[in-house]
Design brief:
Blueprint (H helix, E strand, L loop, with lengths): L1 H12 L3 H12 L5 H19 L1 H11 L8 H6 L5 E3 L17 H17 L3 E3 L14 H12 L1
Parallel strand pairs: 1-2
């Protein structure tokens, strides 16, 4: 039951909820402590507005997330790499035809991994399980990636 609830619980824990809770707490406490309540409401509204702006998200991602240069195929030989591991990025679920395709990010990763494996002659591995929205009886992300790599690439 918990895997099915995980996307909903995650959505509740992410940024929109905390500013809304701060606004609700300030509204609830408005009669007793007016100054604190006004500060809480103002802070909640300001943080909700800032977190909704794309400029703030771009600034946060540039300053908080590490930036890495793109790896080139020749770097694998110089660094004595033994295998290529492609990280999963999701599978589309509940499509009408019943065939689970890779998400756009996963497909790009598999394509690049297959290309590097051909150039470097290194073994290729793909990670990925059932995922948040997947069914227990459905294919894993690794199985879908193997099918796509064999059929398309």
């Amino acid at each position: 039951m918990l895997p099915e609830l995980k996307p909903y619980l995650t959505a509740l824990a992410l940024p929109p909820l905390s500013p809304l809770l701060l606004i609700a707490l300030g509204w609830w406490d408005l009669q007793r402590r007016r100054t604190w309540a006004h500060v809480a409401i103002a802070l909640g509204v300001a943080s909700l507005w800032l977190l909704s702006c794309s400029a703030v998200s771009v600034w946060l991602s540039r300053h908080l997330l590490p930036q890495h240069p793109m790896v080139q195929a020749q770097d694998f030989k110089t660094q004595q790499v033994q295998a290529l591991v492609v990280l999963g990025g999701g599978v589309e679920v509940d499509l009408p035809d019943g065939v689970a395709p890779l998400s756009r990010h996963s497909l790009d990763r598999v394509r690049q991994g297959v290309q590097w494996a051909r150039v470097t002659q290194l073994p290729l591995m793909f990670t990925g399980g059932v995922g948040w929205g997947g069914r227990k009886d459905g294919p894993t992300e690794g199985e879908v990636a193997q099918r796509v790599a064999q059929d398309a690439f």
